[in-house]
Each structure stands twice: as C-alpha cells, then as structure tokens.
Amino acid sequence: MRGPVLGWDVGGANIKAAIVGADRQSAPKVVERPFSLWRDPARLPAVLAEIADGVGGVGPLGAMAVTMTAELADCFATKREGVAFVLDAFRTAFPGVEIRVYGVDGRFRSTDDARQRPLEVAAANWRASATLVARTFPDALFVDVGSTTTDIIPIVGGRIAVEGTTDPARLRSGELVYTGALRTPICAVVRTVPFGGRRCRVAAEHFAVAADVHRWLERIDDNGYVCETPDGRGHSRAESGARIARIICGDLDMLTADDVTSIAEHVARAQVKQIKSGIRQVMRRLGPACPAVAVLAGQGAFIGRPAAEELGLTARDLASAIGSAAARAAPAAAVAYLLAEMDDVPSRAHLTRK
Amino acid sequence: MRGPVLGWDVGGANIKAAIVGADRQSAPKVVERPFSLWRDPARLPAVLAEIADGVGGVGPLGAMAVTMTAELADCFATKREGVAFVLDAFRTAFPGVEIRVYGVDGRFRSTDDARQRPLEVAAANWRASATLVARTFPDALFVDVGSTTTDIIPIVGGRIAVEGTTDPARLRSGELVYTGALRTPICAVVRTVPFGGRRCRVAAEHFAVAADVHRWLERIDDNGYVCETPDGRGHSRAESGARIARIICGDLDMLTADDVTSIAEHVARAQVKQIKSGIRQVMRRLGPACPAVAVLAGQGAFIGRPAAEELGLTARDLASAIGSAAARAAPAAAVAYLLAEMDDVPSRAHLTRK
Fold this sequence. Notes:
The structure is a homodimer. Chain A is of the alpha/beta class.
C-alpha cells in the first residue's frame, strides 16, 4: 500500500511543491507560489494548505517530504527558531499526515529530530536535487540557477563532492552564489552600468531586480515573472524598463529604450560572471577530478548555460531528463522522489543503484 | 516685517526640517524624521504638519523653503509625478503659507513654476548646502555623507563647479555616490566579506544596512540609528550583529563577535573606498584647479573624513561653522537661510556677496 508523496521546498520568498502520484510513473505535478514569509509568517500554514489543495492533496495514505531555506528569513532570530516555525506550520496545516524532513546528510528524519538539530536540515534542498541528478549524471557539475540563488554542486563518481554543507561554508566555497533569475536586486549585482557612453554608479536601493532585466531582454515573459515587483506595479516590459531606469535615478522621460537595453545587457552579463566565478572556484578545487559536464536546472538555466560553456564545460539540461516543470522546481520534485522510493520497498533495489 | 523661515529637505526615506527664527541670529532648530514615503504616500501631508508643529510652526508671517529628493521614490512613475505629489502635500498641509521651491540653478520659484519644470527642482538639495558652504569655504570639496547618499560638490573661487546637475549625470560624474551612513544595504556595498580566514560571498538580500555596521563598530549609538531596521527588530548592538551575521546566511549561533567585527570593518572600509572613488573622479576632472580642502557634513562625516584625508585633502568640519545639528541636516538649514536672506531686503547686500 502506498500513496502519493508531496515534496516541498519552502523558501523565504517562494514555496514550491511537487507531487509524485501513487503510480510513481507520471511526471510530477509542480506548483510554485511566491510568498514573502517575513512579511506575514502567521499565514504560512494557510498558504501550505492552499498549495496542497492545488495539487490535489495527498489523502490518508500519502506522505510529505520537506526541505527548506525559509529558516533564513529575517523574521526569525536564528535558524533554530526558523526551522521550528516551519515545522510547526506543517503540523498545523496537515494534522495526521506523515512528514519527513530531508537533511544535508541525504537522510530523512522525523520532525522531532529535525527540530533537535536544525542545522542539519537548514538549507539542504541542494542536496536533494543533486542526489537525484547523480543517478543520471554520475560525473557532472549540477548548476541550479533559481529565482534567488545558484547552487553549484559537484558530482564525482556518483557521489556529491561538496566542500561546504552550511550556507556560509557554501558561499565561501563557490557552491552557493547568491544571484538568481528573478529576485536579485540589481544593486547587489553591479556597482556601475553604462549610460551615455560612460560608467554610471547605481542607486543602492531596491528599485529593480533581475526579473526586470530578463523581462526587458525578453528572456522571461509575464508568466515567468513570478516574484513581487519592487514598486508594486505590474510585470509588463515597459514597467520593468521604468524600474531599470530608476537604478540610475532616472525615469523613462530621461532614458531611451536603447539606454535601458544597454543597462539590462550589462547586468545580465554581470550575473553570468558571478556564476562563472563560483563554477571556476569549484573547478579549481577539484582539479583534474572535475567533471566536464554541467547539468543545468532552475528558472535561470539560461544564465547558467553561458557561464558553464565559457568555462569549457559541456552543458546538458536537467529538463530533458526529468521534465521542465520538475527541473524548475528541482528540490521539491527531488525530495518527493527520494521519499517515494524509500516507501516503495519492492522497487528500492531497482531505484537505488549504489 | 518678517517671520521665521522653515526649510525642508523631503527625501523618500527621511524628512528634515530646519527653522530660522525671525531674529535670524540663533542657530536653526532642526528636526529629522524617518518616513518611508513609498509605503504610505497618502500620509505625507500629515507627517509634514506634525514636523512643522514640532519646530513650533511658522505662523502667518512665515515662509517655507522646499528642496526634495522624494520624487525618486518608486511610488511615483516619473519625477514629474513625484514633484507634483510633494508640492500637493505642502499645499494640503499648509494652506495659505508662502512656499518657495529651490532649483538646481540656485534660484527659488513658485510651486506652480516648479510643477511646470520638475527636473529643475528634483534633487536640488546638494546645491542649497553647497551655496551656503561656499560663503565660508570659497575653495573646497564639500563632502556631505548622509543617511543614504554622498554628495561631493566642488566649490572653486566661490562658485559651484559641478559637472552634473541631474541625479544620473551626478552618479556618472562622481558628484553623487549612492552610499551613506545608515540606509545603504550591505549587499550593495560589498560582494564578499572575510569569514574564517577566507572571502565569503554575501547574500543579495536586504538583511543588514550600513547603520548595523556603524552601530556594531560603535560609531553611532541607538539614537543615531534613525532609520528602519531591515528585520523590524531593535537598534541594539546585538541586534545589529545578528543582522550582519545574516548577510553570509549565518546567525549568532554560528558566528563569533570577532567574526562580526571583521565583517563590519570590511564593509565600513568599502564605504570609504566608494567615497574615495567619487572624490578622486572629481579631483581628476578639475586637475590643478581642484581645492585642497574637504568640508565634511552629514551623519556620515566620519566616513567622508578618511576618504578625503587619504587623498591628501585637508578635512574641515561644517559643524564647526554652522553647528552640528544644522550640519547633519545641511540642505534643510541651507534652504531656510537662503530664503530668509532674500526676504531680508535691508541685509541682502550684506549677505549675498556675489
């Protein structure tokens, strides 16, 4: 007897859920929802319940697999407080449902165990997706460019060969680069942009984000702009352009469309360089053992691809292996698969090949 | 007959007012108030009225002198819309009071004229303070490090010798550097910080601001932290330390006080370098005509001083010339003085020496 498994990746600004059906065969159904946890943490249980309803729920036989980065949100004084809050929200939203929490060691544990050792379950989402990717690509750099951050996870001989497991250690090792396709403030990416044939300093304000840049450059469309806009206005290309103009304290009365394009191209290019710097650092550490293939995932795979290719790596898409929706929500789908296969005793031997 | 003059510097995040009494002799009374205009623009008239009450009002004989940067706030689609909104707020708050608006050309105009040509009154506050400073220091770089931005205004032979007058032109010329003592997000200042003997990337999030750095380093105290905290918690040194730890996705369970200090010192040093880069650019443009004295003002004068001195300039404090409260709120005090002297026909010949 087995039911569906609902995988969760609970971030501070976005929540993703992926359901693996009881048949374990069809592609997972994936739901993404922007939710600014720090603004209204008390709503988390209701938001979780709505998302679960949106994928059909798991029923009495189902289980849930949870990974999170939401503990970093600044409504929590410490990660310990954040982990406990998120687990409480699951208990409130889904009484009676079996909930298993994924850890940086690659194992699931009970919510009680997770609460006891919060650093073992904080920000473990990268490990879930990398574990799944390793089945198909035993030698690869897994480059997952999300809305906010980029994970660069070396997989060598089928094993996850990271230097760091906590967020600070990963930021130091290059395995976590805090840049992404949507939420990243432009002032955190560049100090200057081209304007009028010269370099112009930018305003240190939350005036525009990466989503505006990629919307203006038509790399994402209205539906791809799944985060809040900095000024509360809409997602249209013109509205994104106005936000981009504001980063040099200008407006669309002062800047031409060409001015905005040259700023946007400069910022997009700077994001590629940020990701290259992380990949390069990982490549140097691994030396000759470093894989020659980069497996790309996430909403920002289009930023990760040039970064990988310019460093001589062969780029492959995770989407072609597991479906584009699941690749965009890789950790949520991954924890669902990983928990599902643990439940499936008859097929476990088949699925876990090491 | 003449009354008091109330000078205003209306920013998007802070409003400053300075009153010059009918006697024109005593030091101006200054009020500063943080107000996040973009969050609740409709409250502006009430906030203006409260601030005016706090300095005692201007009475039927008084006048008001206005300069603003609030038009840049992203609740306004364009500067034109922002200027009109701020002027409407003054009309609502102070019916019947004479209101004069200062322009980048150094002249006052009516609110109707200001509305017609908004770019002439947008972000003109630097010119007001520099005009006043030029009386005492006819050859100087005026370096005003505020909560959010730094103005670097060359004064040569008693004249304001800027390259740019609009915000974008000034960001390009080095005359405006978007870094300040309080509101500047740390992720807009540095890409990496030292941690555990190595460089660690920072989170591109609004987790900590310059005020946290200077609070931790005890360059400002609780009362000097006059801006919102990123996480809505308090201004204590420990709370600032927790916010600083979060910029590498850490918390005070993971980082020691020494870790936080080395991060804070690195960020503070990076702010000095940002201001040096602006000063250096202005010095290069002026060449041999460049003054050898820097006159420092603003809440962040302590950041401007090392920047100026390391470039070989002699640092002077505006506070010693006009009083420390007025130096902190330089543009508000300056527009008040400048309008007051225009009203004072008998003494005009004396005060306006050019």
